[in-house]
Amino acid sequence: MPRPNVPVAPAADLDLLVVLAVIARERSFTRAARVLGVSQPSISARVRRLEARVAEPVFERLGRGVRLTPTGEALLPAAERALALAQEADQLWTGLGTQSRGFVRLAASTTIAGYVLPAAVARFQRDHPDVELEIQVGNTAHVSRLVEAGELAWGLVEGPVDTTTLVARTFLEDEMILVVPVRHRWARRRHVAAAELEQAEFLAREAGSGTGAIYEAVLAAQGVRLHPRVRIAHSRAIVASVAAGAGVAIVSALVARPFMDAKRVVHVPIEGLDIRRAFSSIHRPGRTLAGLDRRLLQALAPRDHR
Prior knowledge:
Layout: H1 11-26, H2 29-36, H3 40-54, E1 59-62, E2 65-68, H4 70-88, E3 101-109, H5 110-115, H6 117-127, E4 130-138, H7 140-148, E5 154-157, E6 167-181, E7 203-204, H8 210-221, E8 230-231, H9 235-243, E9 249-252, H10 253-261, E10 265-267, E11 275-283, H11 291-299
Parallel strand pairs: 3-4, 3-5, 7-8
Antiparallel strand pairs: 1-2, 5-11, 6-9, 6-10, 6-11
Helix pairs in contact: 1-2, 1-3, 1-4, 2-3, 6-11
């Protein structure tokens, strides 16, 4: 039986798509050349050939960097797939094909950046000493905006995201707990009722925080509405404020543990509630994470973070 006549893209076209994907990730011809181990003139020549192939510009200048034009955006999903295949097949230029050189850029929400990423980064860099890492830090809403806008290929978040515009995959589960000052009236209690939190001197994260969104939703399902007296855009600063006697808070156990070990705050269970959340990686639908991105994700596998 004759095989169907399936169009196959020439290897040169796939080469151009790989270049487009790398430049889009780095937002710079210079950084893309360094990642790929070729000269900047070579990168520029490939872009010119791609633009001649599609008869449209694929990049536009943006200050010292570049960004995709609408035509470039239309090509990006195919370019990302070409890059992933080239890396998997070990057919990319010197360095990147063997995963020994390159550049990983991502954004992470604050708890992940402060308490999960450090050990993972250390493990990753031991295995990939010549790979550069650039990590932006913000709350879940900020990280989601960067990924949705295409400014970064992927990110790590600790709160819910819009799954109609982003793909989210859980890599770790986190427990959230109520902490109080050691001399607080609740410090010796076995538990408190959720409703009691409505009258407490409650400290909370800022609007857009994944931490706040999770516990507020759980408490709202119990008919409890919090009235924070203070909002602070950093979980560790919140726990430090609790330790100083400013109020009570619900935070990640990862953040609270050093303060509990030092007997500066006390964990008091909330009766009938076990608040947990997923730490997730996010990317836009149709995008494929590069091999080095996936290796950093593998370094985030569940471990004891004590």
